[in-house]
Amino acid sequence: MLGVSDIALFAALGLTAGTLSGLFGIGGGMVIVPGLFYLFHLLALPEGVLMHLAAGTSMGIMIFTSAASTIAHHLKGDVQWAIVWRILPAIALGVALGKLFATHLNTAALELIFGLFLVGIAAKILLDWSPQPKEPKPPNAWLTNLVGTVLGLKSGVLGIGGGAISVPFLLYSGLSMSQASGTSASFTLPIAIVGTLSCLTFATQATWIPLATGTIYWPAVVMVAPFTMIGAPLGTQLCHWVPSARLKRWFAVFLLLLGLRLLGDTTPLL
Question: Quick check: pTM over 0.85?
Fold first, then answer.
């Protein structure tokens, strides 16, 4: 049975992830997955499946947050649906393969992969690297399928959205920043749906845990998802009030420390 303090921590995680997502335009999964990992540890859930549960539960949460984000971007005219429909099959295939692959990894391996990913994202933010937009030119089929598959694989394994890959790809394809952000956000909904179905179909690590199906812990979905949807518009407003450059550096340091913490927690894999 979850206590009041547990519920408050899940709510705080959702609010934090949603606010940071709106503030920096990043997927909330970067915060939700490690946050769930440590909260599941506090709940004394089995150590051997903590990262699997965190990544799977993150997918369930993303269905709600990505649906709200996609609708908001669509109403602003920022979603380029022609690109979405072209890349969708490759994304779906990549997510399913990524989830299937993740079932063969232990928690230590997933911690290592996620820790390295966070360190890489932190370095990208601190170095202030971003691609320069080009003249509008639709991406060709082979590149679209390649990016979609890689994007899906990464998302399937880690339980997060794909903005770190999709936004640079869309910018290089000639989209404006608002179009790239909106179209990238729309990729997350099929990622979340296919990822959730894959967690229910392929994953067997946590089926015996009460209130969990596959690798989705439903109480966390119910308690985190609404607060991510509350936090996202707050972050969007906050980015107009606070100098973003300084906040991005702080956020990068936070991701760096979080990534190093996950790397420090991993046990030898050999």
Answer: no
Q: What is the pLDDT of residues 31-52, one digit of tens each?
A: 899 899 999 989 988 888 888 8
Annotated domain spans of the chain: 4-265
Token code pair at residue 37: 């990992």
> DSSP letter at 269?
-
Torsion sign (Cα): 125, 33, 223, 92: positive
- In 3D space, the residue among 228, 222, 234 whose CA is nearest the CA of residue 7 turns out to be 222
Find the radius of gyration of the CA atoms of the chain.
18
> What are the DSSP calls for 30-73, one per residue?
HHHHHHHHHHHHHTT--GGGHHHHHHHHHHHHHHHHHHHHHHHH
Single out the residue of 164, 178, 165, 3 nearest to residue 74, CA to CA.
Answer: 178
- Measured distance CA(40)–CA(47) in Å, rounded: 9
Tens of pLDDT along 76-121? 888 889 889 999 999 999 999 988 888 888 878 888 888 888 888 7
pLDDT class of 270 with cuts at 50, 70, 90: very low
Closest CA to 228 of 42, 110, 66, 119: 66
- Closest C-alpha to 258, from 53, 102, 37, 5: 37
Supply φ then ψ for residue 19, to 5 degrees: -65, -45
**pLDDT tens by residue, 51-65:** 889 999 999 998 888
State how far the Cα of 97 lies from the Cα of 259, in Å rounded to an integer. Answer: 24
Q: Does residue 243 surpass a pLDDT of 70?
A: no
d(CA 2, CA 82): 45
Q: What is the token pair recorded at 270?
A: 């050999």
Q: What is the rounded CA–CA span in Å between residue 132 and residue 167?
A: 11
Three-state SS for 216? strand
